Amino acid sequence: MKPQGYPRVEINLGHLRGNVEYVVGKCREKGIEVAGVIKGTTGIPMCTKQFADGGVSYIASSRLEQIEDAKAFGIEKPFMLIRIPMLSEVEEVIRLTNLSLNSEVEVLKALNEEAGKQKKLHKVILMADLGDLREGFWDKDEMVKVGEMVENEMDNIELAGVGTNLGCYGSILATKEKLDELVVIAEEIEAKIGRTLEYISGGATSSFMRVLDGDIPERVNFLRIGEAILLARDLEVFYGYDMSEMNQDVYTLKAEVIEVKNKPSHPVGEISVDAFGHTPEYVDRGMRKRALLAVGKVDYGDTADIFPKEKGIEILGASSDHTILDIEDYDGDIKLGDIISFGIDYASVVYITNCRNVQIVFVS
Ligand SMILES: *Cc1c(COP(=O)(O)O)cnc(C)c1O
Asked: What is the distance in A from the centroid of ligand 1 to the CA of 168?
């Protein structure tokens, strides 16, 4: 393998660290702790280290392998599993993490039993589904009962609090009203168990908007944040927030030009289907200058998720291992062997950092 080859993703660790500190600082002003969610960058340990050094309370992932990698790398922080545990991984959940998000009594019982075996106290947060319709209790009376059961009958797990997730499946906005609903559930459980819960975990990056707007309910004191730290992009692109105080250039994809030629813009011959069985629209703009890159959909997923950094470069399309650029309007000369840079969004960072064809290079 070429150690410094292309395609590559350059990861600016200093900028990542800056974003961690920014988000942690903003949340701290509101009395909110942050779990740094590392799954978007595939748990690359050098990235996880920036989260840890930047002051998060927990390192969180949906995948236990990533937590195992962080531990093997020597990162010492409390760890948290944010995907509801599989029954089949309960032993590892207790071994590797200090806290998990839960929605099934059967899993809680298994966690309690396993924590007893490993002589550990494991914390749990019960998840409420407030309408986004992914994980969590729908029946809130059941949720309160399960909370009481954890408190009174399960000695090896500790009810740390309640949480919710919004804007993942059902596209539901993390409004103040939604988060107030979570606080009501927390207070019902508190009334039953006669103590204050440690955490009310009001969501992910989409709830960070409430921090920026200053209208997050007072009792929400824990968020689990990935995208806003890794890319700081979604809140600007989808909700119009000014994220200019953050670094939006932590991840850069770079690929090499393998062909430069003038070609027609409309395919020549009988149109059928492309490499993926689709027939895109091809606009006839006459002869155009184009460049072919040695990077493709297997590396980054979808061309809609990567963005040429320079003006006058347009992505026309891609197949598994090739990306086709229109460079007719580029002000300058692009030659064979040149390197083209792209910004990338969350959907693509997940692929790019997980792809053995793409070299990972740290810059700072
Ligand atoms: C992925 C995930 C997060 C982090 O989401 P971001 O939008 O990247 O901040 C938080 N909580 C849960 C349960 C998740 O699955």
From this structure: 8
Q: How many residues does the chain have?
A: 364
DSSP characters over 193-210: HTS--SEEE--SHHHHHH
Burial 329-347 (b: 16+ CB within 10 A, else e): ebeeebeeeeebbbbbbbe
Query: How many distinct helices (H) and strands (E) make up the chain?
Result: 12, 16
Q: Which residues of the chain have pLDDT under 50?
A: 1
* Residue listed under structure tokens 């840890």: 52
Which is the closest atom of ligand 1 to the Cα of 82? Answer: 13
Q: Alpha-carbon distance 112 to 104, whole Å?
A: 12
Question: Which residues are catalytically annotated?
Answer: 39
**Per-residue tokens: 256:** 């090499």
Q: What is the pLDDT of residue 335?
A: 98
DSSP 65-88: HHHHHHHHTT--S-EEE-SPPPGG
How much is the pLDDT for 264?
Answer: 96
Six-digit token string for 334: 């692009």
Distance 173 CA to ligand 1 centre (A): 14
Phi-psi category of residue 36: left, alpha or beta, with phi > 0 → left and psi -120 to 50 → alpha? beta
In terms of Cα–Cα distance, which of 103, 38, 93, 33 is closest to 70?
Answer: 38
The pLDDT value given to residue 280: 87
Six-digit token string for 99: 């806290």
